[in-house]
């Protein structure tokens, strides 16, 4: 349901994520044993669009348990830093880095809010600032996020965002054919669903969350206002989980609609650079 922003939105969201960390650690969805053995957590389109990271520094905002962050290190980034507001998530990420033999100088993790990143991370700027799927919906003020992220991009560097397309939040969950929610809504979405995307049947107590829908135009405008130049905005017809019942999983691991119906964008990615 849509409602005014509750005063405890931040605490509620953090309690929800803190509780789900051990569930995610134990889940087949994240499959940490396979990750430790070398499985890549990054998506092929991200690798292609970000390009070679060898010798470059990378900051991952809202990194959760750090699989994407550490994957960038495996791909050659000289130093990766992950930031997340959940202490249990950050502790897990540090443990995984140690399991992979990565020192804190090569892979560091910081527990802090995304809005406080400029004061919390160990370096003043990074060649690449990265944020992955399912991050922006937890932030009420996108202009503040964009200003913070842009301030951390080194001259000549860039911000890369891979996100779930907000258009998908406008359609019904069953068929994805009926418009049921306003794409331009500004009020937060208050959810009370139990479980987690990594384990739908998991028993959970902290089930209240507060989320925001940010239209793509709002994201692009916020980054442009923060002084970054938009290099590209790509929309994708696939997603990472069965967001709608009518999606099917393909051999490449992505979920897509069948060829018997019109498509809508399910994810998007963008690159925004800072002048040298």
TrEMBL record:
Chain coiled-coil ranges: none
Methyltransferase: is it a keyword of this entry? Answer: yes
Methyltransferase domain location: 59-157
What keywords does the record list, in alphabetical order? Methyltransferase, Transferase
* Any single GO BP term: methylation
A molecular function (GO) held by this record is:
methyltransferase activity
Q: What is the superkingdom listed in this entry's lineage?
A: Bacteria
Matching entries from CDD domains are given as: AdoMet_MTases
- Pfam families recorded for this chain? Methyltransf_25
Q: What is this protein called?
A: Methyltransferase type 12
Q: Could you tell me which species this protein originates from?
A: Streptomyces showdoensis
């Amino acid at each position: 349901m849509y409602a005014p922003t509750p005063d405890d939105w931040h605490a509620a969201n953090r309690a929800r994520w803190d509780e789900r960390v051990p569930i995610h650690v134990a889940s087949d969805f994240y499959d940490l044993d396979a990750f430790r053995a070398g499985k890549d957590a990054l998506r092929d389109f991200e690798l292609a669009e970000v390009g070679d990271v060898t010798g470059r520094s990378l900051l991952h905002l809202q990194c959760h348990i750090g699989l994407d962050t550490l994957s960038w290190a495996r791909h050659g980034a000289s130093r990766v830093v992950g930031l997340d507001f959940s202490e249990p998530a950050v502790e897990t990420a540090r443990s995984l880095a140690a399991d992979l033999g990565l020192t804190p100088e090569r892979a560091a993790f910081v527990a802090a809010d995304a809005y406080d990143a400029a004061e919390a991370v160990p370096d003043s700027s990074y060649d690449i600032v990265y944020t992955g799927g399912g991050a922006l919906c937890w932030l009420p003020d996108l202009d503040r996020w964009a200003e913070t992220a842009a301030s951390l991009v080194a001259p000549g560097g860039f911000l890369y965002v891979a996100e779930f397309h907000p258009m998908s939040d406008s359609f019904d969950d069953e068929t994805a054919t009926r418009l049921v929610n306003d794409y331009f809504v500004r009020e937060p979405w208050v959810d009370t669903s139990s479980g987690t995307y990594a384990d739908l049947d998991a028993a959970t107590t902290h089930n209240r969350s507060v989320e925001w829908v940010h239209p793509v135009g709002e994201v692009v405008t916020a980054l442009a206002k923060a002084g970054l130049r938009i290099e590209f905005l790509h929309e994708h017809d696939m997603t990472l989980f069965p967001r709608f019942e009518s999606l099917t999983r393909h051999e490449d691991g992505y979920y897509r609609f069948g060829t018997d119906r019109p498509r809508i964008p399910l994810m998007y990615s963008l690159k925004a650079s800072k002048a040298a």
